[in-house]
Design goal:
The chain has helices at 33-36, 78-91, 102-109, 116-124, 130-139, 147-154, 170-185, 193-203, 208-221, 224-229, 235-240, and strands at 2-5, 12-18, 25-32, 54-57. By secondary structure, it is mainly α. The strands form two sheets. A two-stranded antiparallel ribbon has the order 1-4. Strands 2-3 form a two-stranded antiparallel ribbon. Helix 7 crosses helix 8, helix 7 (170-185) crosses helix 9 and helix 8 crosses helix 9. The two termini are 30 Å apart.
Length: 241
């Protein structure tokens, strides 16, 4: 059995600032280790459409792998960093309008992990979330009728991932607060275990208050909330059509 794993070929250095009037973080500078050391020129060629994959042979062991274990990230080339720098610079001038070719680049190559915090929020329209950010502060400290179910499922969410595997860890605490806050924010949907995995995936990329805002946008703008309320009716149509 062959599994493919991707890894960054260079260490990335990035600076982010919190937009006080917009409630989300944006990357203000991004460069790779090789750029810092002067091994590559500052002006780089356009992104190559091809990408390489290093295949590694899996062992014949039948040992079960827990969900969330391991680290999987794809290689990020120098040229791709320049392309994304240009995209984000243009995008920040008008967050409501997606830059040309953005969708095709994402479908072809994905989004570098170091940029997902900003890009995911922009894609979901989180740049007008001041009210939602303030609401989270209140919701996160309120009691929810779903707390016992949420607590029971927290340890089952990516149980082998470093951020979530320890009981009482910051990761588990953040996940609990985000899910609890949403169950209060949207009592009609309430809570189901599948929501924990969506929220956990988002939490791995950004602070919890921003994760809550993005989680709400995903639920409301991408049909997930409606799917949950209808007991997953239409799931095949949503993802296969």
């Amino acid at each position: 059995m062959i599994n493919s794993f991707f890894s960054f070929s260079n260490r990335l250095f990035w600076k982010a600032t919190k937009e006080s009037n917009k409630g989300f973080y944006k990357v203000i500078n991004l460069e790779s280790q090789s750029q810092r050391e002067g091994r590559f020129p500052s002006v780089l060629p356009a992104l190559d459409a091809s990408s390489s994959e290093d295949e590694t042979a899996d062992s014949d062991s039948d040992e079960q792998m827990l969900s969330g274990s391991g680290r999987v990230s794809r290689e990020c080339e120098e040229g791709e960093l320049k392309v994304w720098s240009e995209i984000l610079t243009k995008w920040r001038t008008n967050l409501a309008v997606r830059p040309k070719y953005l969708n095709s680049i994402i479908r072809r190559d994905g989004i570098p992990q170091s940029l997902r915090c900003e890009v995911w929020q922009n894609l979901a329209g989180c740049f007008n979330s001041d009210e939602l950010l303030e609401k989270y502060k209140s919701l996160s400290v309120q009691d929810s009728p779903w707390e016992s179910e949420i607590t029971k499922d927290i340890s089952r969410t990516f149980p082998a991932h470093e951020f979530f595997k320890e009981a009482g860890s910051e990761g588990q605490d953040q996940l609990f607060r985000v899910i609890k806050a949403y169950s209060i924010y949207d009592p009609e949907t309430g809570y189901s275990q599948s929501l924990s995995f969506i929220a956990a995936t988002i939490l791995l990329q950004m602070p919890e208050e921003n994760a809550f805002c993005l989680f709400v946008r995903v639920m409301e703008n991408y049909g997930v909330r409606e799917m949950m309320r209808n007991d997953f009716e239409g799931t095949s149509r949503l993802f296969l059509d």
